[in-house]
Design brief:
Layout: H1 3-23, H2 29-36, H3 40-53, H4 60-68, H5 72-79, H6 85-93
Helix pairs in contact: 2-6, 3-4
Length: about 100
């Protein structure tokens, strides 16, 4: 496979993941983080970090909107539930497994 095809496939897979996460508003970030070690916020941070490397000017808010499909504040108001004590304990217990970009470890 040539590099351009690989890049196009990777980009399509990323867009599919983002679209799926935008659809699955019931999947809370804390649950995704506790299970997989990354969440929508991590994806937006990876997106922003890569833009920075390439000299593309994008704000944190713009990166989050690219991932959430709407302003982050709107998503939080419409879809984010308060984390339970159990979820927060699991979050603390799994910090060593969180993505480096999360800033949690």
């Amino acid at each position: 496979m040539d590099d351009q095809t690989r890049i196009e496939l990777e980009a399509a897979a990323f867009r599919g993941l983002v679209k799926h996460l935008q659809k699955r508003t019931d999947a809370q970030n804390i649950d995704i983080m506790n299970l997989a070690g990354f969440c929508r916020n991590c994806l937006s941070k990876w997106y922003k970090a890569e833009a920075d490397v390439r000299g593309v000017e994008i704000t944190d808010d713009e990166a989050r909107e690219a991932i959430y499909g709407m302003p982050y504040a709107d998503w939080k108001q419409k879809h984010q539930e308060k984390a339970s004590d159990e979820q927060m304990q699991k979050f603390e217990d799994t910090k060593p497994l969180h993505a480096e970009i999360s800033g949690h470890n």
